[in-house]
Design a protein that fits this description.
about 350 residues; alpha/beta; TIM Barrel; two-stranded parallel sheet; binds zinc ion; Polysaccharide deacetylase family protein; NODB_dom
Length: about 350
C-alpha cells in the first residue's frame, strides 16, 4: 500500500493535483478505489518478491514504473485525486453503509418485538421543495381560491402514504414506544375536550418528533355552527395548543371532515395553512376505503384515532400492526406529512 501511495504522490508531483470528482462519478471512484487497492496488494507482492527492496526511483527524464503510465482503459481520475481525499471518501462510504446496516438491523428487531408481519419499508428522502397542494376536485367552497387547500392525497409519485391520528381519547404509552422503536412517522390532530385529561402524554409525543395539529376544542359539526362559534372552536384550539405545546399548529382537520367557507376563512385567519382530510381509515381489524378502487395510492392520507379496546376490537398497537401490514403488503412506506405539506 505504501508503495502505491508513494507512486501516487510522485505522479501528483508530476501532474499536479486535480479536483476530486463529485456526484455520480464518486460511485465510479469507489470501484476504481477497490481496483487500486487490489493492484496495490499485487504491487506489494512484487515488492516482497524483490526481498523488500523498493525499485530505485526513476532518473530525471526517465519513465517511472509501469503503474504510473496513464492506462488506456478507464478514466484517469483515480491517479489524479489526492490519496487523502480518496481514503476520506472511502471512509465516509463505509460509515454510511455501516449506519444503514445498523438501522436495518434495528428495524428488524423492532418489527419482531412489536409482532409486525413484515419490516416496514423505508420512506425515500423528503423532497427538497414541498409539492404545491391544491383543493381536491369536488371539495371546493365558493371563493375558496386563496383559502387553505382541502385534500385527501398529497401529490407525489413515490409509493408513500401518511398516517394521521385524531381526537386524543386513548393515551396508550405502548403506542409512543412502538412508533419510536419502529421509526414510523405519524401526525396527531388533537381536540382539547379529550386531550385535556393528560396534555403530558401529548407533550411526550411531541418530544418524540410528532407534529401536533388542530382538531378543534370540542369536536363539533362545523357547518352547524355560527361564524363566532366556529371561530371559538378553531382559533380557541390554536391558542390552547400554543399555550400547552409552545407552537401554533399550521394544519387543521375539521371534525368528521365537514366544513364550509367560514370554516376555511376562520382557519386561515388564525394561522392554518392546509386542511388535510383522508383517503382511507385504519381500525385494528379492518380498513375503510373512501376511494372507489378500495386501494392505496401514492400520497394517500390514512386516518385513524386515539382509541382502544373500549371502542375498538383491539388496542392501538393492534391497529398499527393491521395498518402496517396493509401498507407494507401493498409496497408502500409511511412518510412524514410535514415533510410534504
Ligand atoms: Zn375527530
Amino acid at each position: 500500500m505504501q508503495l502505491v501511495r508513494q507512486k501516487e504522490e510522485s505522479a501528483m508531483k508530476r501532474h499536479g493535483p486535480r479536483r476530486l470528482a463529485r456526484g455520480p462519478v464518486c460511485t465510479t471512484l469507489v470501484t476504481l478505489l477497490a481496483a487500486a487497492l487490489a493492484s496495490g496488494c499485487a504491487a506489494e507482492g512484487t515488492d516482497s518478491a524483490t526481498g523488500g527492496k523498493r525499485p530505485a526511483p526513476p532518473a530525471p527524464g526517465q519513465e517511472g514504473p509501469p503503474l504510473l503510465k496513464p492506462r488506456q482503459e478507464g478514466p484517469p481520475l483515480l491517479k489524479a485525486a489526492p490519496p487523502d481525499a480518496l481514503s476520506a471518501y472511502a471512509g465516509e462510504v463505509r460509515r454510511k453503509q455501516a449506519a444503514r446496516v445498523a438501522a436495518a438491523r434495528k428495524q428488524v428487531a423492532a418489527a419482531k418485538k412489536w409482532r409486525l408481519a413484515k419490516v416496514p419499508l423505508a420512506a425515500p428522502e423528503p423532497p427538497a421543495v414541498k409539492p404545491r397542494i391544491t383543493t381536491r376536485k369536488g371539495f371546493e367552497v365558493t371563493g375558496g381560491e386563496t383559502l387553505p387547500p382541502v385534500f385527501t392525497t398529497v401529490p407525489t409519485k413515490e409509493r408513500i402514504v401518511f398516517l394521521t391520528m385524531d381526537d386524543g381519547a386513548e393515551k396508550d404509552p405502548a403506542l409512543l414506544r412502538m412508533m419510536t422503536e419502529l421509526d414510523i412517522p405519524y401526525s396527531a390532530f388533537l381536540s382539547d375536550y379529550v386531550v385535556k385529561e393528560d396534555y403530558g402524554y401529548f407533550r411526550k409525543m411531541k418530544a418524540r418528533g410528532v407534529t401536533l395539529s388542530n382538531h378543534t376544542l370540542n369536536h363539533r359539526y362545523m357547518p352547524g355552527l355560527s361564524y363566532a362559534e366556529q371561530k371559538r372552536e378553531i382559533c380557541g384550539q390554536q391558542d390552547r395548543m400554543a399555550k400547552e405545546f409552545g407552537k401554533r399548529p399550521t394544519l387543521f382537520r375539521p371534525p368528521y371532515g365537514n366544513y364550509n367557507g367560514d370554516t376555511l376563512r376562520i382557519a386561515k385567519s388564525c394561522g392554518i395553512k392546509a386542511v388535510p382530510l383522508w383517503a382511507s381509515e385504519a381500525f385494528p381489524d379492518h380498513m375503510e376505503w373512501r376511494e372507489w378502487d378500495r386501494d392505496l395510492h401514492p400520497g394517500d392520507i390514512i386516518l385513524t384515532h386515539f382509541r382502544g379496546p373500549g371502542d375498538w376490537k383491539g388496542s392501538m398497537p393492534d391497529m398499527i400492526r393491521r395498518v402496517m401490514k396493509t401498507v407494507t403488503d401493498k409496497g408502500y412506506a409511511v412518510a412524514r406529512l410535514e415533510d410534504y405539506v
